[in-house]
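Throughout our pipeline, every protein is held as a single compact record rather than as scattered files. This encoding replaces a full spatial description with a residue-level series of whole-number codes. The remainder of this section carries one protein's record, kept here as part of the documentation.
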Amino acid sequence: MSSEFSSRFDRWIRGIAPSPKDVGTVKGLVLRPEGSAEGERQRVESSVAVPERGLEGDRWADSPYATAGNEVSLINVHFLRAISDGDEDRGALSGDNLHVDLDLSEENLPLGSRLSIGEAVLEVSDVEHIPCASFLERFGAFATKSIAHANGLGLRGRGVLCHVRARGEIKLGDQIRVDRSGSSDQR
């Protein structure tokens, strides 16, 4: 990548608002309804996280892409707003379940970090969350390259994928508490 393009992406990343590191907030909750068409999304007030099933009402378990470690997806709300021009309906098309105000970087959330949200507990998995062809189609080349660049810097612009470790309800506005004690890189 040329330095001109790299500096353009770096400027874009510097424009992203910072997020808290230890206690974040659920700002959006999105399901891909069971039996729905590709791209159909439903914004909801709450859902229940279920081990090996993902979120109740989401079609994750029926997806051909369902693998251990990608039951629930999180994206930082500031990155999402930047690629969707602040449009919540367009942002929902990212396909991520939880839109969060939390620093999702590799430094802040090493693999194995646990996120307590209400009674639910999610664990950051080793499955990398990368932009796919649908992401490119929905958000365009610049957004996709910017997110990929953020991923390359360890910022996880595309977000994180998680295991559900403890069943529990997750609601809009819930706090997200970070526990790094079981991570591969305790701080």
In short: Residues 133-152 form the longest helix (20 residues). The first strand starts at residue 23 and ends at 31. Residues 3-179 form a domain with the M1 Pyruvate Kinase; Domain 3 fold (CATH 2.40.33.20).
